[in-house]
Design a protein that fits this description.
The complex is a heterodimer of chains A (about 200) and B (about 200). Chain A is mostly helical. Chain A contains 9 helices and 2 strands; from the N terminus they run ααααααααββα. The model of chain B has no long low-confidence stretch (mean pLDDT about 85). Chain B contains 4 helices and 5 strands; from the N terminus they run αβββββααα. By secondary structure, chain B is α+β, with helices and mostly antiparallel strands. Classes of the chains: A mainly alpha (about 200), B alpha+beta (about 200).
């Protein structure tokens, strides 16, 4: 069943949305969704790495010997991750301090690796680019949804452009539990459940 | 055999391309990253020890060679005079690894202007108070900027943070280090500070 070009892009947004459908990349999703801004930064970083590495791997897929393909993929992905890390340090240092170790860990995040192996190594560059972009945006949206939910319930407001915005009145009692580590598991579980119910038809 | 050679060649080329690209990018961003580290890691401590300074001490900085190391110095202008000098120092004797410090000296009166902790891994609530508790860091203000700085347990004049003597000792060590650098480089420092815009 061949997909159209548009479907390559849109599948990452719903049908195969990474954290909920493919259940990949859960470690960062648990760790960095305690604040909305972190989620946006992390999502954009992953989208860039995913698109870049997909295109490059697709471009060189015919010259990579099958036996060393995983090594070659890792080198390509690690290069893009280091690019992101350096650029983040140079231009958005405050965000870099918050995301810390999770940026270098994108290298071993299953999403870029999984897309390289399952998709980019078998498809042409245009399709790989759209696949990477779609998956990246899908991942970003998932992170944003989860982070917004956690931050709003836990603090009664949301921080946008480093400015806190209060959404509920002073009577709201912040539910701090949700920004702690156990809250991440509970929220992720709830969202997975909701996604399963929605996708059951 | 042919396959083996192909593997080696392909991997070598990919790695070379990657290494070259990253080296170039690092060269290109190095200066900006250094500035960001100064601003976000050391900046707050420097501004804290130079509270009330008329200039931006991060912008008014110079470097001096001390043997093989290059040291950063920040200058604070007070009452129209460039008399505040802040330097970086560190001690490896913290309870959990290195403690980074900014030590500020009044070069006119040779007295300490204050200290500020920049980086540390000390225990929250105990050693971490070296950074957050002004009662501890405030003690250094006005002390003579020479010789050894010690905690009271070692016969000095600094009251250690209760429950965090190791951390307090490490901070004192770092201050002592900074002061010895100050004494050693004093002629060059005085020369450089004349050129600072007031």
């Amino acid at each position: 069943m061949a997909k159209t070009i548009t479907q390559e892009f849109t599948k990452g947004l719903w049908a195969e949305i990474p954290p909920f459908r493919l259940v990949l990349g859960l470690c960062p999703i648990l760790a960095i969704t305690n604040a909305f801004e972190n989620a946006v930064g992390m999502g954009l970083a992953v989208t860039f790495v995913l698109t870049g590495s997909n295109v490059l791997i697709s471009a060189i897929r015919k010259i990579i010997p099958p036996k060393v393909r995983i090594v070659a993929f890792i080198v390509v992905i690690a290069t893009f991750v280091t690019v992101v890390e350096l650029v983040m340090q140079a231009y958005t240092y405050a965000l870099f301090l918050k995301l810390g170790i999770y940026i270098p860990l994108i290298v071993v995040n299953c999403i870029p690796m999984g897309r390289a192996e399952a998709f980019a190594s078998k498809n042409n560059m245009v399709r790989s680019a759209l696949d990477g972009l779609g998956m990246g945006i899908g991942y970003t949206l998932s992170l944003m949804a989860l982070a917004a939910f956690r931050e709003i319930i836990a603090t009664g407001g949301i921080t946008l452009y480093e400015k806190p915005v209060a959404l509920f009145g002073a009577a709201f009692e912040p539910f701090r539990f949700l920004v702690e580590a156990p809250g991440a598991f509970v929220c992720l579980g709830l969202m997975l459940g909701v996604m399963n119910i929605l996708g059951k038809k | 055999m042919l396959e083996l050679i192909k593997m080696i060649v392909v991997l070598t080329i990919i790695s070379l391309a990657s290494g070259g690209l990253l080296a170039a990018l690092r060269d290109g961003t190095q200066e900006r990253i250094d500035n960001q580290v100064l601003e976000f890691v050391k900046g707050p401590a420097v501004r804290q020890v130079f509270e009330g300074a008329a200039n931006d001490p991060i912008a008014a900085r110079f470097q001096l060679k001390d043997g093989n190391v290059v040291r950063n110095f920040f200058v604070g202008v007070f009452d129209g005079e460039a008399k505040g000098l802040a330097m970086e120092s560190s001690s490896s004797k913290g309870y959990k690894g290195d403690i980074g410090l900014i030590v500020a000296v009044d070069v006119k009166s040779d007295k300490l202007m204050g200290i500020g902790v920049t980086t540390h891994n000390e225990t929250p609530g105990l050693g971490a108070r070296a950074k957050t508790d002004p009662k501890f860091s405030g003690q250094f203000k006005g002390a003579a900027a020479s010789g050894q700085v010690k905690v009271t347990q070692d016969g000095g004049g600094v009251n250690a943070i209760s429950g965090a003597t190791i951390t307090s000792r490490a901070v004192c060590d770092a201050v002592t280090d900074a002061l010895s650098v100050y004494e050693r480089l004093k002629p060059q420092i005085t020369e450089k500070m004349k050129n600072v815009k007031k």
